[in-house]
Structures are given as structure tokens and as C-alpha cells.
Amino acid sequence: MATSAARAAERGAAGSGEIPAETQLRIYETMVLARRLSERLLQLQRAGIVPLAVPCDGHEAIQVGSALAMPRERTIVYPYYRSLAAVLAYGMTPLDLVLGFYAKRDDPSTGGHQMPGHYSRRDLNIVTTSSVVGTQLVHAAGAAYAAKVRKSGQVAITYIGEGGTSEGDFHEALNFAAIHKLPVLFVVENNQYAISVPLTKQMAVANVADRAAAYGMPGVIVDGNDAEACYLATRDAVARALAGDGPTLLEAKTYRLAPHTSDDDDRGYRPLEEIAMWRRERDPVPRFAATLEARGLLDEAGTAAIAARVRAAIDDATARAEASPDPDPADIHIPVFSTPEVPGRTQ
Ligand SMILES: Cc1ncc(C[n+]2csc(CCOP(=O)(O)OP(=O)(O)O)c2C)c(N)n1
Ligand SMILES: [Mg+2]
Which atom of ligand 1 is nearest to 194's Cα? Predict the structure, then answer.
């Protein structure tokens, strides 16, 4: 097996493939939609309207780039709480998401029963995550095992932060997936902080991807603020998974541009200049816009049209969520628990 450094070099060489122009534009528009929706949810939380916001600002390239590289009908998705941009790219609508943050009856994730950020939509094969960091990896490995046994041709993808990789679930999921050569992608969004804990206090190796060799799978490092590189790295990993070559650990190096959640004051643990530098020089959204402009795929009018569409979609979602009904208190146990049918039991 090649070392992870060699794998990273391979990734660079393979990054020259072409992405269709319409896919590039779709990636960009979805990134803009995610950024504006993330900002809106934080505003709504600050206004006392929704209880919690979980920003994805800075993570759009890896989330959207990976999602749009997956074979949609065959993908089972295990997101995490920061996956706002990813779930939009997998097909959830702004209304779906805003309904969840408002805890409304028609929230497709859990009918307004769960804390915001536990994304799911059954018809899109987006499976809700546990609040316990890391569990989604074991669930994804299990789903991939089922896909392999059933020969369904499906592939699972799951997302986690670098801090979450300190959990035992990370080890169990990767070990199991590699042993059984399962069709699963483990995407680590390494934003350098686990709430207030910096990377150097989280792990003693330079890269999460370095651990992949110990499990027996490729560990690929990608610039998580480069949407195109993220798309191509995911496409390679999907090809391996569907060819029966097993899982991939894909580490996207990125940075969280906003606080951990609306409950976090990040001024206490990172310098303002650090955030300002990432916003100024590496923000994935303007960076991809510049790439598209340089290719002649986007101009000022195109950018303005996307901004207007996104604004209208978010305004519409917010207005509709505001006006939609609250859950019925009588339904408090639905859909959190199923009603078990126990033979011989009368109640
Ligand atoms: C097992 C467990 N431990 C702690 C927490 C509390 N917690 C929630 S998110 C988080 C930080 C995770 O950081 P990281 O994995 O780097 O993801 P990021 O939020 O940076 O995207 C912690 C400690 C939890 N939910 N579950
Ligand atoms: Mg982190």
C-alpha cells in the first residue's frame, strides 16, 4: 500500500479531469445557497427566532464538491451537524432545513422533534445522525456492509470533523470497513478546531489521513477549500468503492469561518486575525467564483442572478416556515419511537 503522502501526490496528479460546465455552476450556486442560508440561520438565532444555528461557513467546497460527485440514486448519506451545505447538495431544500430550525411539524428530519442540525430525508437516503459524535461512521460502515451483502450497488458516504476522529467509533468503523472492503467514503472536514480545542491538542500526527495506512485503506488529503479538487477526489474514491476496492479516508483541510454554533464565543480561543486571513485569502466561495470567471463560465451578471435566486429561495423558505404549523403535542413520540408490535401484548 502506498503511504498517505504518496496518495496525496497521486491525488494531485489525478486532479486534471474535466468537470462539466453545468456541474461547475451547480456546485457554485449550491455553495452560495449554503453560505447565505447558514448566515440567515445565525441571524434568526440572534433575533431569538430559532434556538440554535450551526454554521457551515468555510466548509462549502468539501461538502458540495463531494456531494455532487456521488452517484445520486445509489448513495446513502450519513451527515453530521455541520453538513448544511452537503444536505442541500444531496437534495434537501432550504424549506426542509428552515422547518427543522423552526421546529415545525413538517420538518422532514424529525417533524420538529429533534435539535436543529440532525438532518435527514428518507426519500433521499439521508440518514439522521446521533448527537454522539462519531456514531455516524459506524452506521455508514454498517450500511455499506448491507449494500455489499445485498449486492445493491450502493455506496455510503459519511462526514465527521477532525475532533470526532478521536472517538473509538472512528477506529471501529474504519477497521471494519477496510477488513470487508466496504463501499464507503469517510470524509473528515479538518477545520483545525473541535469547538475550542486546536488540532495540536487533538492528535499527535500531522494529518488524519496518515492513520488510513494503519487500517489498510487509502488516506487522501485534499484542499478542502477547493471545490473542484474535492469533487475529483470524491469521484476517485467512489470509483474505488464501486469497483470493490473498498473504503477511502478523505481528509479535507479547511477552516471554520464562523463560531462552532450560535452558543460559542470563538474570540476566547482563536485570534481574530486568523479568521480574517482565511476569509480574505482562502474563502472557498469567492475562490470558486474567481475560477469560474477565469474560465468564462461566470460574469458579473451571472453572479448577480445567482445571488438574487438564492436570496429569493431563502426569503421564501423563511416566510413559509414561519407560517407553517407547529407539531401537535399529542404526536410527541412520533417519529422518535416506532410503535413495537409485541406478540401477546395487549397494550
Ligand atoms: C461523544 C461526544 N463527545 C463530545 C460531544 C460534544 N461535541 C459536539 S461537537 C464537538 C466538537 C467536534 O469537533 P470536530 O469533530 O472537529 O467537528 P467540527 O465541529 O469542528 O466541525 C464536541 C466536543 C458530543 N456531541 N459527543
Ligand atoms: Mg473541527
Answer: 13
User: Of all protein residues, whose CA lies closest to atom 21 belonging to ligand 1?
Assistant: 161
Is any ligand 1 atom within 6 A of the Cβ of residue 147? Answer: no
Q: Is 248 helix (H, G, I), strand (E, B) or coil?
A: strand
Asked if 227 contacts 297 with a C-beta cutoff of 8 angstroms, the reply is no
Any domain includes 5? no
Taking CA atoms only, the protein residue closest to ligand 1 atom 20 is 194
- Catalytic machinery residues: 256, 260, 269
Q: What are phi and psi of 187, to 5 degrees?
A: -100, 120
CATH of the domain at 52: 3.40.50.970
Nearest CA residue ID for atom 19, ligand 1: 194
Whether residue 238 lies inside any domain: the answer is yes
pLDDT digits (tens, 9 = 90+) for 186-244: 999 999 999 999 999 999 999 999 999 999 999 999 999 999 999 999 999 999 999 99
Query: What would the pLDDT profile of 157-183 be if each residue is shown by its tens digit?
Result: 999 999 999 999 999 999 999 999 999
Rounded-to-integer distance, Cα 130 and Cα 116, Å: 12
